[in-house]
Design brief:
With 304 residues, the protein is mainly α. Helices cover 42% and strands 4% of the residues.
Amino acid sequence: MQMQLLQHHSVLSGAEERRLKEARPLEWIHFPKAGSSFINVITHLPGTCPSLANYLSPDTVSGGTCWLSHWFQNDCTRVCNGSRYSCPRGGCPHLPVTNYSAQRGHMVGMFRDPDQRIISGYHDDGNNFASFTEQNFGILRKVSKCKGDLLRGAPKRPLLEFAERWKGGMTYQLVPTDPAILAVDPMRPAVTRADGLEAARRVREGFAFVGIAEDWDLSICLFHKMFGGACRAEEFQDTRPGFAGKSADQDYNISKLQGWHDDIDEVVYTAALDVFRRNLIMFDVSQETCQECYSAATVTHGET
């Protein structure tokens, strides 16, 4: 019996290794306000960023509002293996998909309820996305990859106006009409429902891993079930809350949107939920089967 268990574990490890090999180099499609902490999971995969242990503290995303941009721009290519993880070009963490045929099968990402993502973006005082205007964004993009520190304290536009600007942001990153224009750019082109349907198709067919921000713990466990690697405590921490005291498992009050709804990104999010739930079944991931992962990461999690 013990030999059978060892053989079974060996088969699973071999499957994880093959799956990860096929997905490399991983390309993280990072939607704003959908979980910067996911960088911890990617960079600590064995062999992905071999110089990381001697370079960073255990909490990878830890250096303030613009830390991720600075790290991508200055250090990612130095500490990470380019054949295993593709560092974002130019240091921008929210790049759109630029060559789907080449990126297909290598993309990984966390998806978030569209309305929650937008409200979170509005309340993010560090990045202060709601203060972006055509004028200041155009000037600041020439100065820095990260605008938050330069716009800290600047007045925000009204919530509903901001929501309309951010509508379809996940869709745009997946099917950009102009890859040179970022999703957070207040001048980015609007997207259509047809764009949302194409983006949803890419989620279903082009992603090596799909996680859900609202089911963060299960998503992290699923990632390790699919690709191996040890579960680590920092992978389960909300290192970038929207504001002080906000925890990742708290929803925003969407009544402030007064009935407004991002019906375009809803199509994308629904596709992500479908993929996520299918993979939970395929890889036998549940709160019960993830207890070993949680214990290794010293995460306390109730059973459902």
